[in-house]
Each structure stands twice: as C-alpha cells, then as structure tokens.
Amino acid sequence: MTQASTQGTVYGVGLGPGSQDLMSVRADRLIRGATHIAYFRKKGRKGHARSIVEGLIAPGAIELPMEYPVTTEIPFEDPQYNALLSEFYSRCVTQLIEIANAGCNVVVLCEGDPFFYGSFMHLYTRLLNQVPVSVVPGITGMSAAWTATGQPITWGDDILTVLMGTLPEEMLAQHIADTDALVVMKIGRNLKKLRRALKQAGREDQAWLIEYAAMEQQRVLPLVEVGESVPYFSIVLIHGNGRRP
Asked: What is the edge-to-edge ordering of all strands in the sheet holding 219-222?
C-alpha cells in the first residue's frame, strides 16, 4: 500500500458562531466519531472552540490543545509577532502530520467558518500536498450577528464590506463611508478608534453592536448606547438599505 492510501485525514471543522444547534450535521458526526481532536486556545484557557463542543467528544478521544505563544501581548505589526506565530503553526502542523501518517484522522475545531479569518487557514496551507485535508464549512459569526438584530443586512444591489477593527483609523473611515452595508470584526481594544472612524464617516448613529452572537450571553445594542469596553466576541454592523420591490 502507498503512504497516501494509509494516511489519515486532517479535518478543519467549522463550528458556527457558538451554539451547538447551529453546527452542521457533518460537523456533529465528525466530532462525535473523532479519535483525535485538536483546537486552538490561549494559554491557561479552556478555549472557546473546545467549550462549544462540550459533551460531544467521545470518551477516550485524544485532545490536542494548540496554545498560542502570543495573542495581544505584542503589536501584530511587530516582526516578532509573525515569527512566533509562524514557528507555532509549523509545530502544530508537524504534530498533525505525524498523527495522519500513523493512519489516524484528526478533527481541528474551528470557530465560525474555517476559511473566514480563522487560524486553521495557516495550518491548511502548510498541510496541503503532505496529508489529506478536508474542510467542513460553518455559519460565520457575522451571519449570526445580523440575524440577531432582526433586520436583513443587504438588499438588492447593496455592497457589503467586511473590515477588521485592527485597520488604521483613516482606512476604516474611508471604507465605512464608501460601503452600503458593513461588518467590523475584532473590536475589543479597537472600539474607540472604530467609533472615531464611524463618526468621521457620518454613520455612527447607524451602527449596531452585537456581543456573543447566537450564544447564551448574546446582547444587541445601538453602538451609541454601548459603554467604553466590549468583549472580544463582538461585531459592529450597519445594515444596507438598497433596492427592493
């Protein structure tokens, strides 16, 4: 037998926004049947992805927590930030390849969708052409966020823009002014900067903040009513108002 025929598969499994009943049937089946479960987490934490699947993992399954060497301790534009993460992802990939080469499948838990601003993408590009890799899509956090507001996010020909709160203030302001509908992720400590950008674009009063979309702690508020700090799992959005019959 060739190595390819005996290798296991690495599955990047999208968990959706945070509620088990919003996971796909395929994701549920793979997680329940997995012998090896890997997931990212901050050092000293259980990990949000792991928390989502509580009660689904089979007894005896081997868990492989992948602990980030750095999160917000140093600026992401610092060359050391990329160097540390690159080395970290390489170590994770080496471990996953070893398991797959032993003939075992590995499920990597991914919050939201694996191909949408997720850490799994950095594993995926390193795993390609080395072991079989399969990706299971998931509902994105932003989809849960706009659904939580009870309003459609786009109409007709509306242009939807997705931004990261980590972008420079002037760039944020320009994109906010130029788009119809808006989603901003990675709010956290970027809240003040984002507020200034929204005000500069003249759209502060249109913005909504959604905390913990689709989770038990979900909270939906106009941004102007929000305090000075917000949780990491927060999304700001502006609804489009385009063409309709």
From this structure: 160-164, 181-185, 234-238, 208-211, 219-222
Sign of the C-alpha dihedral computed for residues 167, 119, 233 and 214 taken in this order: positive
Helix residue ranges per DSSP H, 102-140 = 120-127
Domain ranges of the chain: 10-136, 141-238
Please name every residue paired with 39 in a beta bridge, in sequence order, or none if there are none: 65
Q: What angle do helix axes 79-101 and 120-127 make, rounded to 10 degrees?
A: 60
Tell me the whole-structure pTM to 2 decimals. 0.93
The pLDDT tens digits of the residues spanning 166-222 come to 999 999 999 999 999 999 999 999 999 999 999 999 999 999 999 999 999 999 999
Asked if 165 and 237 touch (Cβ cutoff 8 Å), the reply is no
Which residue carries 């927590």 as its tokens? Answer: 65
DSSP 104: -
- What does the alpha-carbon distance between residue 226 and residue 134 come to, in Å, rounded to a whole number? 40
Is 10-136 a domain of CATH 3.40.50.10750? Answer: no
Give the number of other Cβ atoms within 10 Å of residue 28's Cβ. Answer: 16
Low-confidence ranges of the chain (pLDDT < 50): 1-2
pLDDT at 76: 67
Which pair of tokens denotes residue 47? 């990990």
* CATH architecture assignment, domain 141-238: 2-Layer Sandwich (3.30)
What is the pLDDT, as a whole number, of residue 232?
79
HSE value, Cβ hemisphere, 13 Å, CA-based, for 89:
15
